[in-house]
Amino acid sequence: MRPELMNALAVAYLGDAVFEVYVREYLLTEKGIMKPHELQRASVKYVSAYAHAGFMKYALSKNFFTEEEVRLFKRGRNCKGHSVKNKSVVVHNQSSGFESMVGHLYLTKQTERLDEIFELFKKYVEEEEVTK
């Protein structure tokens, strides 16, 4: 089935997992963190809804994304059915939009672009104080 015909939140579900793998690989191989407890603590600032939402705002302001990627983000962001716990609806929706875009890129085998996005994401997280 083509990703654009799938439920955007289902694609976001996959995108969340894909991005988690990117983060875990980065923490292990580039940061050299080996202890599970330290990995868990370090990953929080990369996989939080606040990090995803903040990154989207940052990258959109830099015109980093293609028109298609922005469309995918908006499709996931605007999808109904979000259940929000302990974070603002706006942050949650933006994070879901980001994850939906990542999931779509993964399903369409655009791994080179995912790598580029992750490189900018790493810089963003390392330079910004991502809170919550």
Automatic annotation (TrEMBL):
GO molecular function term, any single one: ribonuclease III activity
Coiled coil: none
Gene3D superfamilies per UniProt: Ribonuclease III domain (1.10.1520.10)
Keyword field: Cytoplasm, Endonuclease, Hydrolase, Magnesium, Nuclease, Ribosome biogenesis, RNA-binding, rRNA processing, rRNA-binding
Domain of life of the source: Bacteria
Residue ranges of domain RNase III in the record: 11-109
InterPro entries assigned to the protein according to its UniProt record, in alphabetical order: Mini3_fam, RNase_III_dom, RNase_III_sf
Record localization: Cytoplasm
Chief site of localization: cytoplasm
Stored SUPFAM superfamilies: RNase III domain-like
Active site: 16
Record-stated family: Belongs to the MrnC RNase family.
Alphabetical list of HAMAP family matching this protein: RNase_Mini_III (MF_01468)
Function in brief: Involved in correct processing of both the 5' and 3' ends of 23S rRNA precursor. Processes 30S rRNA precursor transcript even in absence of ribonuclease 3 (Rnc); Rnc processes 30S rRNA into smaller rRNA precursors.
Subunit structure: Homodimer.
Listed name of the protein: Mini-ribonuclease 3
